[in-house]
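Postdoc handover notes: sequence design on the structure in folder B. Input tokens:
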């Protein structure tokens, strides 16, 4: 038994206890705790630095925004208003380039200043004197006279259809100086028109004498022979008929021919209305007559112009 105990003692003496193992593991926990603390410190420093950077950026942007309104507005007026007016005068047919858009951060001071000159009414200085209106022209006194007491006178301005004044013989009216158109008329008298100028330096007298209505007399020349020719055979008469037909077509278009035929009836007679000629070849004798006859045509004769007193007319004069 004693021998067996001796044999087991070395085995028990060499066994390790648990306490030394705990002493060996304590430095590892400290290292882990130190590492965790260092990481936490680094994270805190990084968060503080990021917060400081964002604060600096915000302060710098606030300073830039506060400095923008301090820019003088005159610079924008010169860049936007003046070049546009100069370009419009130099090149009226070229469209103007659009103005650059205003940044969103800048205030609308330019728009307010550009709108102010349009809304402000133009103020006339007190010391500026408006030009005086020209004085009205002094009316001129005009008296109308005529040997015919029934004459009626109307005054028209050029290019106007309504009279500005109407007067009878013996009346005196006041009119503005200038150019007028005088229209005089009366019972059994021919209408007379004349352009006159009233200068307004002195009273005037306008005398007019009209022509009496002329008597007209009308006469028909149908059946009057214009020309005759003789032919010796039927064949010659047929040829003569064709020749006279072309000749008659030319005569009826000639006013001198018609006036000449009217003069055979009465001197100074004038052709009136439409005219036609007729060709006539008749008879079977060896000597046959072909003639040109007026089929339709008339003449009118008028008495010479005379006033009621038998003098030349019309006339109108200023004295």
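Designed sequence:
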């Amino acid at each position: 038994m004693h021998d067996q105990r001796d044999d087991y003692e070395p085995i028990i003496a060499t066994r390790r206890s648990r306490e030394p193992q705990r002493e060996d593991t304590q430095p590892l926990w400290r290292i882990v705790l130190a590492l965790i603390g260092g990481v936490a410190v680094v994270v805190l420093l990084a968060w503080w630095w990021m917060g400081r950077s964002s604060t600096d950026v915000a302060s710098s942007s606030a300073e830039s925004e506060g400095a923008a309104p301090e820019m003088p507005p005159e610079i924008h007026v010169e860049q936007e208003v003046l070049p546009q007016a100069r370009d419009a005068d130099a090149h009226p047919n070229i469209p103007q380039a659009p103005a650059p858009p205003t940044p969103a951060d800048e205030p609308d001071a330019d728009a307010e200043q550009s709108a102010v000159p349009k809304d402000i009414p133009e103020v006339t200085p007190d010391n500026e004197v408006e030009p005086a209106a020209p004085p009205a022209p002094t009316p001129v006194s005009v008296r109308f006279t005529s040997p015919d007491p029934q004459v009626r006178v109307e005054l028209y301005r050029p290019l106007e259809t309504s009279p500005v004044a109407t007067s009878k013989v013996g009346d005196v009216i006041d009119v503005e100086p200038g150019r007028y158109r005088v229209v005089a008329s009366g019972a059994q008298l021919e209408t007379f028109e004349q352009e006159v100028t009233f200068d307004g330096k002195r009273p005037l007298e306008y005398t007019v004498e009209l022509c009496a209505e002329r008597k007209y007399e009308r006469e028909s020349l149908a059946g009057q022979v214009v020309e005759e020719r003789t032919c010796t055979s039927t064949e010659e008469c047929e040829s003569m008929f064709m020749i006279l037909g072309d000749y008659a077509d030319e005569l009826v278009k000639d006013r001198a021919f018609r006036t000449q035929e009217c003069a055979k009836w009465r001197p100074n007679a004038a052709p009136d209305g439409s005219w036609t000629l007729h060709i006539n070849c008749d008879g079977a004798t060896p000597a046959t007559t072909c003639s040109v006859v007026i089929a339709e045509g008339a003449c009118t004769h008028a008495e010479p112009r005379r006033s009621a007193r038998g003098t030349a007319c019309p006339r109108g004069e200023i004295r």
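Context for whoever picks this up: The chain has a mean pLDDT of 74. Don't rerun without checking with the PI first.
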